[in-house]
Amino acid sequence: MNVWWRAAYGAAAMGIALGSSITVSAAVDNKYLPAVVCALIAILLIRPFRRRKELGLVAPLRGLLTGVLVTGGCAAVVFGAGTAAGWISWGRFDVRAVLLFLLTNTIIAVLLEALPEELSLRGHAWTALRSRHGGFVAALGTTGLFLLVPGIASAVQLILGGILDLDSQELSLAPPGEDPVAYFVLLTIFGFTLVAARAATGSLWASVGTHLTFLTVNRLSVQGADRDAGWSASVVNQDVLLLIPAYLILAALVYWAGQSLMSRPALSLASSLPQRER
């Protein structure tokens, strides 16, 4: 099978998993069950066809910590600069509410978004494309497929909603309430950052950590008031929200720089060895 069709299977699997979870969410009053359904479907559709190493399911602790520290650190730098410039002001910090939010958000975000999306896209799709193409083409292809997932999920939800006689939203390429252009620009930058995490570390868990940290930072800051997160940020105008893609770009650059630095000593050593020792 052509590698592009194999890669597209990853996007289709994630779309099916996400669309099914949205349908479950409309049918039951439980915020955890849809997340569990999404993760299970994605794992069942992807894991049997790929070995752990092919998916990048290696070095879980190191990978997760790298993703969290790089993304969280870049967000702190960028948001810190925005705060110092007077663009962002912060509300009261409620320790108990923040800890409760972090617990519930981590469970749901990992199961509903971070793990299944990384497994199907930066895991399966990236591996399929890298088997035939270079890193740049694979990154473009994986990110392009990432942009198709919301539309596929919307179609799956519409079909399942009709079968189960549930109220379903109209077919759309972006989630309801989102400006399509802004959403897809941010999703594109996010997709390249997630690929950078996987490529730089060789571990899918770095992408999972990056994904989880991105969701947590945004929900705890600019979306904090809407989500009762115990802390929230106010911005002087909507243009300040460009700080979100800014810290993603910074994180991608950190991953790229780290990958370059790690590869140079090995290359230098190899080039310095006599021919008979190589």
UniProtKB/TrEMBL annotation:
Any Pfam family hit: Rce1-like
UniProt domain CAAX prenyl protease 2/Lysostaphin resistance protein A-like: residue ranges: 102-214
Keyword terms of this UniProt record: Hydrolase, Membrane, Metalloprotease, Protease, Transmembrane, Transmembrane helix
InterPro entries associated with the record: Rce1/LyrA-like_dom
UniProt KW Transferase keyword: no
UniProt-listed GO biological process terms: CAAX-box protein maturation; proteolysis
Key word Hydrolase present: yes
Transmembrane portions of the chain: 7-26, 32-49, 61-89, 95-115, 136-160, 180-197, 240-258
GO molecular function: endopeptidase activity; metallopeptidase activity
Domain of life: Bacteria
The protein, known as: CPBP family intramembrane metalloprotease
